[in-house]
Structures are given as C-alpha cells and as structure tokens.
Amino acid sequence: MEQITSRSNPLMVHIKKLASSASYRRACGEFVCDSPKLLEEALLHGGDLHTVVCTEQAALPVIPAGVRLVQVPGDVMKSVSPAQTPQGVLAVCGMPQRPLPEKLAGKRYVVLDGVQDPGN
Questions:
Q1: Are 48 and 93 in contact (CB under 8 A)?
Q2: Are 21 and 84 in contact (CB under 8 A)?
Q3: Alpha carbon distances (Å) from 47 to 5, 7, 9, 11, 32
Q4: Is the pTM of this model over 0.85?
Q5: pLDDT band, very low/low/confident/very high, at 118 (cuts 50, 70, 90)
C-alpha cells in the first residue's frame, strides 16, 4: 500500500478539487465517494474504481487488483475529505458514460435537476 503524508501531494490536490468543483469533476470524468458504505456500494455494483484512500484505522473490503490503494494520516484525510467528520475512507471513481436514448419508452418520467446532497 502506498503511503502519502503531504497535503500538497498531486493526488491529494486532485481529490480536493474533485470534492469541491463540479466543473472539475466533469472535466476529469471522476467523482469522490466519501465513506466505507459508498466504497462497498461502488464495489457491489461494478463501479469504475480508480483509487482508494484510507487512514490506518480504516477497515477496508477486498479491493480489486489494479486499483490504487493509498494510506494517509488523519490530518491529510480531514484536509481532502468533503465531510466535516471524515470516516477514514475515500474512493475516486470514474463517471459512467451513458448516452441519452433516442426515444423514451413508457408513460411517466422523473427529471432531476440541480440535486444537492443526494446522499441525504
């Protein structure tokens, strides 16, 4: 497992930007999952997992081969996590590339626009 101790490490800067800027997320095609539960959900549903960042105390599920695994001290996790109280695990995932369908089947639709705090 790779160890990073600096907040100014390029990966930590990248994660902080992903967590704070929607335009940066769209440009990079990545987003941040900030909790062990979201990491488990990404693994369960075949998410495009790129990087997992954790603290020493964090319990991790089995991480697939090829996923970058990084351990950081608690102060570094706190500096990059979008949560006020980080849970010790962050995951960087690729955004799914799904084209819009040419025609919608069915009679009823739900359109969501400008959703904030979707986890709530």
A1: yes
A2: no
A3: 27, 26, 25, 20, 12
A4: no
A5: low
